[in-house]
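User:
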Amino acid sequence: MRQPLLAELVAARLRERILSGELREGDLLPPQEQLMAELQVSFGVVREALRLLENDGLLLVRRGNVGGAVVHAPTVDRAAQMISMVLQARTTTAADVGAALGHIEPVCAALCAARPDRARTVVPALRAILARQSDELDDLDAYVPNARRFHEAVVELCGSDTMIVVVGSLEAIWSAHESAVWSAAPGARRRAPRPVADADPDTLNAPMSRRVRRDALRAHENLLAAIEAGDEDRAREVASAHLSLARDRTLAWAERTTIRAAAVTPAD
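Assistant: Predicted structure:
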């Protein structure tokens, strides 16, 4: 057998051990000499197999005295980075991603409402995020990630692994790109201790004014209420209306922004 084919077979065997959970995130693969003996292949075959797995993103090979091959199990963040590369190659805009989320994220909200265990698994988690979002309403640096975290949690808690991976990847891509526009939005203030009545009227309807932040918080509260009540139709309706309004506020930015894979960085 030619060496590349042997390396592919070895890589396939090791890949299966990672995907099955036998090897977990952060685990070290056995030393190459041990792999050579276990699999009865040459050093060159093992090295090529590890290179293939590193290209897949399943391993991080460290060289030197503290070297070794560290397992990187597949995650939604890593899937998002791969999808973002495909989207960038197709010159896809952020508006396109936002429109897709507007159609499918409400399905995740309805799935949350349909969960029989929602009172134990979904509602407490969303309520904790909402509490923090409310407490930090006037701190833009904290508010923006809190607001995005609520949307991401609705997907993560929907109970469908397929939706969690697919929609979660799009959420990660959108969050990575949207954060830049909010932090630079006209009318946005890092802290707004003054009451909204004292604010400049010209900024009240700016993309990240206090009024806009408060309205988004109220929409999240309404969505949580629908989920807690188990009202799937209402959850879908509230999520759809909220996402449509949010998309309108970012439309100009989103239409001229092309997805960049470099903006989507998987957590190590």
